[in-house]
Amino acid sequence: xxxxxxxxRQAWNQGADAFIHFVDSGADYYRLLVHxxxxxxxxxxVRGARVLDLGCGHxxxxxxxxxxxxxxxxxxxxxxxxxxxxxxxxxxPLGITYHHxxxxxxxxxxxANSYDLVxxxxxxxxxxxxxxxxxxxxxxxxxxxxxxxxxxxxxTDTPYREWLRDEQGNKRAxxxxxxxxxxxxxxxxxxxRLKYPWSTPFHRFTLTEWSALFxxxxxxxxxxxxxxxxAEVLAQQPQLEDCARMPxxxxxxxxxxxxxxxxxxxxxxx
Length: 270
Ligand SMILES: C[S@@+](CC[C@H](N)C(=O)[O-])C[C@H]1O[C@@H](n2cnc3c(N)ncnc32)[C@H](O)[C@@H]1O
Description:
By secondary structure, this protein is of the alpha/beta class. Helix content is 35%, strand content 27%. The chain has a domain at 28-153 and 204-255: Rossmann fold (3-Layer(aba) Sandwich). It is built from nine helices and eleven strands. The strands form three sheets. Strands 3-2-1-4-5-11-10 form a seven-stranded mixed beta sheet, with helices on both faces. Strands 6-7 form a two-stranded antiparallel ribbon. Strand 6 (160-165) and strand 7 form a beta hairpin. Helix 1 crosses helix 4 (79-91) and helix 6 runs parallel beside helix 7 (207-217). S-adenosylmethionine is lined by residues 5, 8, 12, 23, 55-57, 60-61, 75-78, 81, 102-104, 121-123, 126-128.
């Protein structure tokens, strides 16, 4: 395990209790109402599909897939998050198999051509070597396999990001800088909605770098999605107004195989 992965394991174990509370209490409304359902929708029909969920954490997305009839394997580096995933599986069995595994070691643990879909809900940017993980994902996918990933949107998840406000405190404009400052970075989880703050390592990549990573691993981009809340969801949770104005999340819909004649990329949706 490299030093990035060692730091990630320690960081995610340290933050596990706060992260689980954040998700399970409903406080992570961006995930629960916006990017989570959007990633699920991009997966499409998964009944009977063999799905590998990378960086599954305590199983939020693995359970969404399993409830829709998928045969899910979840892997994660954090034993604390996985312990919670296993506990939930024991309490409410959905047939999910969890492995405590560094995603960069996939090659040596999982069989080639054994999955129909690889997913990663807000995890690919957190994994130490995304290039290695993507080529391992290629190997475990069957010929017509797909991969779908959500990440923080690189255009708005910049090192400098601040809402400029008017005299009444209303958000006037999002001020951003540092888009091209790619490389390893630290995410400080400091929102007031958290039980306690913690920090995790991640990679910042530009859109050009992400597309190069996918191409080098052999993936074809079928579609990009920039989910935002509908009017109904906004009425339910007005705090989501910021991500209705600016794209906070980016979803990649990838195909293992190159496009063949007659096949068209999926629609770019909002
Ligand atoms: C933002 S969390 C997302 C967790 C989960 N997918 C969810 O949506 O709740 C990122 C996850 O990536 C995991 N992770 C980081 N590096 C990893 C690695 N090298 N292999 C496997 N998992 C890793 C962390 O332990 C953490 O659970």
